[in-house]
Each structure stands twice: as C-alpha cells, then as structure tokens.
Amino acid sequence: MRNLLLACLFILLPGLSASAETFEFTSRTYAGMPQIQKGEPTNEIVIKGILDVPSGSGPHPALVVAHSCGGWTASGRGEQLILDAAKQAGYATLVYDSFDPRGWQNVCSGTAGAAGTPSLIADAFTALNALSKDSRIRKDAIFIAGASMGGMTSWFAALEPLRRRQVEGDLRFSGHISFYPSGDHGFIADKVFAGGPILVMFGLDDDWTPPKRVRLMMERQKAYSKEAPPEIRFVEYENARHGWLNLDVRSVKYLSMASSRLNCPLVYYGGASSNHLIWVDGREMDVPFSETGKHLAGCASSGVTMEGNAAITAKSLAEMVSHMNRLLGR
C-alpha cells in the first residue's frame, strides 16, 4: 500500500524526492466551527501524507504544508513549490491530503459545507502532534505554510482557542506563513494567539480572497487580543492576483463557480450568547448565535479570477524561507 501511494504521488507531484516516505496520523472531522471550539468531533479519520526528511544528522526543522481548496493533487503544483523551497533550505517537509479520506474533492465552491474549515484546522494540529514525536524532527522548530485555503489553515493554527483543543501540552507551531489566505472567523478571548510569529502575503489584485477583508479580519483579531500579540507581518504585492503560485495559469483565468466573500460579515466568537459581526463597509453588530446564519446567507458573489506570476512566486518563497530562517537564528 505504501509503495502504491508513493507511486501515485510521484506521478501527480513529480517534485517529490526519492527520500520521501508515507506518513499517517489520526485526525478528526468537525461539523462546524462551534463544534471544534467545544471539542465535539463527528468522527476520527486517518490522514495520509508524504514526509521528506533531509539526509545527515538531525533533528531537523520542519515545514508542514496545508493544501488549498482544490485539493492536494489538483492544486499541488503550488504546494510543490513551497515544499521545494523549504527542502532546498534544509527543512524536512510534510504535505498531506485532507480531502480524499473524507470523500471530498474540490471544495472551492463550498461543497464541504461548514465542515471544511474546522476539519482542515484539526488536520494541521494533529499533523503537528504526530510530527513532534518523530526523533528526526525538532519539535521546537515546526512551521506551517499554505496558500489560499491552506493559508487560512496556517493563520488559524496560530490561534490559541483552537490550539488548546487539538494539541498536547504547550506544543505549538514555531511560525506561520500564509500565501493569499481566505478567512471568515476570529475570537474574543483572554488569550487569542498561540505565540508563533506570522507572515501573511497578499496580492493587491486578488478578488477571490480580497486583502481588504482578510486583513481586516487579522487586524481586528490583533485588537481583540487581551495579551500582546506575536509578530504579525503583512507583505503586499502589486499586480498580483489570487493563485500566483499556480504558474501553469499563464493568463487571467475566470472561475465562475468560485465566490468572493468581500461583502460577507466576519464572525468573531466569544460572547456568552452572541457573535460579533463586522463588515468591510464599517458595520458592526452583536447577533444571537441562532441568527448568525441568516447574515451569512446569500452574501457571496460568484465569479473570481486567478493568475500565476513567476516573479511574485520567487519573491514570496524567498520571504517564507527568510521568515523561518530568521526565527531559527540562521
């Protein structure tokens, strides 16, 4: 079975090296964000991935790569560039498939429903748990990166209300890198951030995960943090659309089935009986739990664009490696 999985992945992701090995861990599926906050999974599930550890004496720092809404094998070219950059810099790498074990494929149009976001967050943390037990890996130097939905996963893996439900003891990611992330949720809590420094990269022409909305989500999360937040650095690229890591998309591509959530409210959890909603137009209100859904219904607008960009890809990957190396004192 291991050889069959590896053979399939070498075909789909030709950048995988001969040292790659299968890596399995047990994660959980959650029906929605309220369920992951309460620690109420629907079921446990085995996640399969590929671990690539450098030769030579360890233990080694590592990068976990969370895939985007297109799935690992469908959108894997961008993920492979992230993996390659990390491996060339001397990091062990782990990439895994969150969709196939759950019977999901492309969820960019929302086919996973409310279960998508919390289940991917759970996968990231359970990957961290499992990887930290490998003697070849430095448990104090495990980073996470991802693009689009994977970038969202990387951001949410930096939040303490989610971390403490999923990992053992004080274990946390050492740093987070998000390429053009999505995001809809936040927390109002005594301790919001887990502590790992965060790098977020936006394309200013991104109409799929608009920087105006996503950055508002992150800035407000900093403001709602009652403790000093970790370093959070934003990098913005002009003339860059969503999906710049997808270099096979050589011109602007219109996606009619995908949606922008620019006009949808951001939802912040933490109230005793209500959620706090914020819109990019400046509106804010507290809404009872039972009424939050009606403000989210029908707010998305269909039709977005994406385009690969080799120059921005090179710059952003260099930013990622520099971020990790600096945090390790390299």
Explain this structure to me?
- This protein has one domain (2-240, 312-327): Rossmann fold (3-Layer(aba) Sandwich).
- The longest helix is centred in the C-terminal third of the chain and has 18 residues, at 310-327.
- 30% of the residues lie in helices and 28% in strands.
- It is α/β, with parallel strands linked by helices and 330 residues long.
- It has an 8-stranded mixed beta sheet, with helices on both faces. It has a 4-stranded mixed beta sheet with strand order 7-11-12-13, with helices on one face. A two-stranded antiparallel ribbon has the order 10-14.
- Helix 3 (76-88) crosses helix 9 (310-327).
How would you sum up this structure in a few lines?
Mean pLDDT is 90; it is low at 1-7 and 10-14.
Number of domains: 1
Over the alpha carbons, how many angstroms does the gyration radius reach? 19 Å
CATH architecture classification: 3-Layer(aba) Sandwich
What's the CATH H-level superfamily name?
Alpha/Beta hydrolase fold, catalytic domain
**From the helix content, strand content and strand pairing, which structural class follows?**
alpha/beta
The CATH first-level class comes to: Alpha Beta
Q: Summarize model confidence as the mean pLDDT.
A: 90
The largest sheet has its strands arranged as: 1-2-4-3-5-6-8-9
Order of helices and strands: HEHEEHEHEHHEEEHEEEEEHEH
Count of individual beta strands: 14
Give the helix proportion (percent range): 25-40%
Largest β-sheet summary:
8 strands, mixed
How large is the count of helical segments?
A: 9
The rough form would be described as globular
Any low-confidence stretches, pLDDT <50, length ≥5?
1-7, 10-14
